[in-house]
Write a sequence for this structure.
C-alpha cells in the first residue's frame, strides 16, 4: 500500500521554461542556440545542481563555454523568477495528498541559489513534509546516493512509496531501490496513474 509520495520539482511541480525565457529576451535564433549550449545544455549545468561550485565559478564555466554571449549568460543566471514558474495545480495537489494522509517529500536536482528562490516563492513548498535537494547532498539524480539520502533521512519503505519524475533515467534510478514510479508527462494523466496504484486523491 502506498503511503508516501515523492515529487520532482522541474516539469512536475514547476515549469522549467528556459526556452521561453530566451525567446522572451528577444534574442535571435543563433544567440538562443549559443546561450543554451553554454548553459542549460552543458555538462556544467548539472554540476550547478550538485552544489559544489559557487555561483561565480559556475558563471565563469558557462562563459568559458562561449565568451561571446557572456552578457546573456549573466542575465540568465540572474533571472530565477523567469526561468522556473510554479504550476497552478501544485499547491492544491500537495494539500489534497496531505489531507488524505500521505507523506509528501521532494527529490529534485536543484542548485542552491535557484532553490532559495523556489523555497521563498513557490506556494506548494510549505505543505510538503521535507525532501532532499541535490545541492544539499552533492549528488544528482539518477546517482544512487541521492535516493539513499532520502530513504535514510525519512526512514520509509520505498516499496510503499511512489516517485513522480519527468526523466525516465531518474525513474530507473528509483526503481533499483524498489520505488513505484510514474513518468510525469501531464498532470491529469499522473493523477490517474496514482489512483491506479490505490492513492486516494
Amino acid at each position: 500500500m502506498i503511503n508516501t509520495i515523492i515529487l520532482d520539482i522541474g516539469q512536475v511541480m514547476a515549469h522549467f521554461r528556459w526556452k521561453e525565457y530566451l525567446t522572451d529576451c528577444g534574442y535571435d535564433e543563433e544567440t538562443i542556440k549559443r546561450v543554451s549550449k553554454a548553459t542549460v545544455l552543458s555538462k556544467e549545468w548539472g554540476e550547478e545542481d550538485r552544489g559544489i561550485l559557487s555561483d561565480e565559478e559556475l558563471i565563469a564555466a558557462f562563459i568559458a563555454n562561449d565568451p561571446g554571449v557572456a552578457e546573456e549568460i549573466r542575465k540568465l543566471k540572474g533571472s530565477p523568477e523567469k526561468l522556473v514558474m510554479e504550476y497552478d495545480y501544485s499547491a492544491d495537489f500537495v494539500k489534497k495528498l496531505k489531507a488524505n494522509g500521505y507523506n509528501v517529500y521532494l527529490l529534485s536536482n536543484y542548485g542552491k541559489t535557484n532553490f532559495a528562490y523556489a523555497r521563498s516563492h513557490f506556494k506548494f513548498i510549505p505543505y510538503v513534509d521535507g525532501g532532499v535537494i541535490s545541492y544539499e547532498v552533492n549528488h544528482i539524480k539518477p546517482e544512487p546516493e541521492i535516493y539513499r539520502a532520502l530513504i535514510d533521512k525519512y526512514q520509509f519503505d520505498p516499496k510503499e512509496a511512489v516517485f513522480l519524475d519527468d526523466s525516465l533515467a531518474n525513474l530507473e534510478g528509483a526503481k533499483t531501490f524498489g520505488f513505484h514510479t510514474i513518468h510525469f508527462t501531464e498532470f491529469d494523466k499522473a493523477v490517474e496513474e496514482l489512483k491506479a496504484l490505490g492513492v486516494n486523491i
DSSP finds twelve helices and seven strands in the chain. Residues 59 and 196 are 44 Å apart (CA to CA). The first strand starts at residue 4 and ends at 7.
